Amino acid sequence: MNTKTAQLDPTPPAIPPVAAPQFNRRRLLLSAAGGLGALAVGGGAAWWARRDAARGPRLWNSAAMGGRVVLPSGAQQGLFASGYDGSVRSLDPATGAVRWSRVVKAAPPVNDLDGWQLANSGGWHAAAGEGVVCVVSTAGVQTLDAATGEPRWEVPLPEWPETPETSGPAIGAGGVFVVHGAALHCYDPATGALRWSGDPGVTGVLRLAGDAVYVAGKDGGLVALDARTGARLWTQDALGAVEDPPAVHRGLVYVGYSGGQPDSYTAFGLDAATGGVRWQRSRLPVAGPLAAADRTVCLLSGDRLMGLDADTGDTRWTADVPVGLGSGVSSMTAADGAVYVGTNDDRLLAFELATGQPRWRDEPDRIASDTEYTRVFLAATGSAVYCGTRTGLHALRAPAAA
Q: Is 246 within a domain?
């Protein structure tokens, strides 16, 4: 394994403007609500001015940075942001103060599509844990010391992943996991030495949970591997093309796929040890990642939030959520008794995970006048929820336990 020290450029990579972005089938479904919201911005502005402003339990806000929000795996304390400007920052979770900031080296886009994807991805994919922050850019896999931001090691990629929007790394179980060259690779967090590589024919959709890593097959299905050795644990071929990382909770793996049409989403609850199907729900109006916590699986589509029983897949509750008035899509995450929904116009809502009852909502002072495509990134703990968008990074207090 050839490794070399990461080089950090003094300025972010230049990204050219692009006129014609491209999406895959599920991304088209995802963007439909955001596109309709963008058309409604003009008319929605009048409604916005008449509304009763809502304020959640705000902890801090930083307009100087926005993008992907990364919480470290394990018991380590910290918060990291991978921003639109090509930088990675370490933040104090309690105050938002920047502890260190680094610009990640990146190769220039080779075509217009690459340029659009990078400009609209919300920042380089990143993960934190095992004392390092790992970033996947067009230049390769780069790791920084989590405490200082100093470069640790770098592994050049033979080629930019085919689907950069789903090529994020994962850290835990003593390894750094990255998919490139249609295969999953495990690196030593301290040295970058390759520990194992295998299972060709997979995509960058992966989830690490405990001592197992779950990765989507390039032709469909889900594969479970031993995170320590790379040995295949099981394969579930009953799934179609999986385009979002699965959720893992209490011995079950929750995963879904879309048939490319409205109300064509199918969700599965799989046995984490064997891959066997415990339950299956079809014709769901869902087109986004699942989240699971506290015996509840959450699904979001447009203006509808659903909570399913994690053991049976039965519907426990449904809740109405606003559709963002900007361009882009909403995001959802669940943790420690609460489920959060963030919209592309900077609204953030908290619901009771057990019942779907609203706990609080937070709104900005004004809606953005432009229609630039916006991604919403959420990360939550038992004490706070962090939301990253184009307008900045926001932290709010988690609801108190019911």
A: yes
From its phi and psi, is residue 274 left (phi > 0), alpha (psi between -120 and 50) or beta?
A: alpha
Q: Is residue 10 part of a domain?
A: no
CA distance 273 to 199: 18
Rounded Cα–Cα distance for residues 402 and 399 (Å): 8
Predicted TM-score (pTM) of the model is: 0.85
CA 297 distance to own-chain centroid: 16
* Number of domains into which the chain is organized: 1
Q: Residue 187: which residues within 8 A CB-CB, separation 6 or more?
A: 141, 155, 175, 176, 177, 178, 193, 194, 195
Vertex 135 angle, CA 130 and 136, to 5°: 130
Helices (H), 40-107: 41-50
Q: Residue 349 has which token pair?
A: 């809502």
Q: DSSP label at 328?
A: B
pLDDT one-digit tens code per residue, 49-65: 666 778 999 999 998 78
Determine contact, residues 178/136, Cβ cutoff 8 Å. yes
Owning domain of residue 32: 25-397
Note whether residue 14 is domain-resident.
no
Q: What is the pLDDT of residues 27-43, one digit of tens each?
A: 444 444 444 444 445 55
Beta-bridge partners for 315: 308
Helix (H, G, I), strand (E, B), or coil: what is residue 50? helix
Q: How many CB atoms are closer than 10 A to CB 303?
A: 13
77: domain CATH number is 2.130.10.10
